[in-house]
Amino acid sequence: MALLLRVVLLCGVADLIRSLSITPPDQMMIEKAKGETAYLPCKFTIGPDDQGPLDIEWLLSPADNQQVDQVIILYSGDKIYDNYHEALKGRVHFTSNDLKAGDASINVTNLQLSDIGTYQCKVKKAPGVANKKVLLTVLEMTSPVITVRNATSEYSGIYTCTVQNRVGSDQCRLNLDVVPPSNRAGTIAGAIIGILFALVIIGFIVFCCRKKRREEKYEKEVHHDIREDVPPPKSRTSTARSYIGSNHSSLGSMSPSNMEGYSKTQYNQVPSEDFERAPQSPTLPPAKVAAPNLSRMGAVPVMIPAQSKDGSIV
């Protein structure tokens, strides 16, 4: 009886060894920084009795424990389905191209704080079934802020900042150059003075241009101002000459006896309007000459016609 029981136990142990199993991961808890890639291992072995189709399933149990487990990636019927969880869509991938070789590990890229939770790997190949869990923690390296108060030029220089936590470390360099404050009042006053000076110059230029245009316009009006209503002045010299010439032509018909009267009358009848502006010298009364003396002087007797008051010859 004891021998039979021992044989049964040995056979049970052998069956357990030969069935599907998942290799325990080296770390049950994985910590990564935000933005990095997390590797979640899941390697399995298949027993000789596991003849069913291979199914692999990864599930996420959120850290708040208020949501149900969600499938994030699935392998079934030689096909991969990774559109189950919207928050991880496009960021979860199997690391192996041949899952039947015994590697169901996945990579979660561009980690976010919402990715924190427990990830469970389930492998099924009937009749064998196995599963393992791993905890993923995402840490955020916050950017440190240094405040320097009442800074002077002595604070100028290169500063190095190093941040370190459980998931790694990071370092940055900062060049600080402290510049004393400028005289803002003087700058504003200078700007105002410059603007006023520019306005004065512009006003002066505009004034000169307008003045020059007015002068040019006035000169054009003066040069082109032709008065057509004023007649040209009369030719006084020609009028006087024509009048005297006509009188000389008529002297040939006059006698010596009436020459004296004619001389007095005719030359006093020259229109004064023709000579009103010409300077006149005082006229002396003509000297009376007797007729015999005129003959001795070579005078020619002419006939002088009589003249009425209005100047017409009778």
What attributes does this structure have?
314 residues; alpha+beta; Immunoglobulin-like; six-stranded mixed sheet; three-stranded antiparallel sheet; 13 strands; 24% strand; rod-shaped
What is the gist of this entry?
Residues 218-264 are annotated as: Disordered. With 314 residues, the protein is of the alpha+beta class.
CATH homolog superfamily of the domain at 16-139:
Immunoglobulins
How far the N terminus sits from the C terminus, by CA atoms, comes to 202 Å
* Overall strand count: 13
Helix fraction bin: 25-40%
User: Which series of helices and strands comes N to C?
Assistant: HEEEEEEEEEEEEEHHHH
Mean pLDDT score, rounded?
Answer: 75
Strand composition percent: 15-25%
CATH architecture verdict of the domain at 16-139: Sandwich
Which spans of ≥5 residues are poorly predicted at pLDDT below 50? 1-17, 242-253, 261-276
From the spread of the alpha carbons, the general shape counts as rod-shaped
Based on secondary structure, the structural category is alpha+beta
Radius of gyration: 68 Å
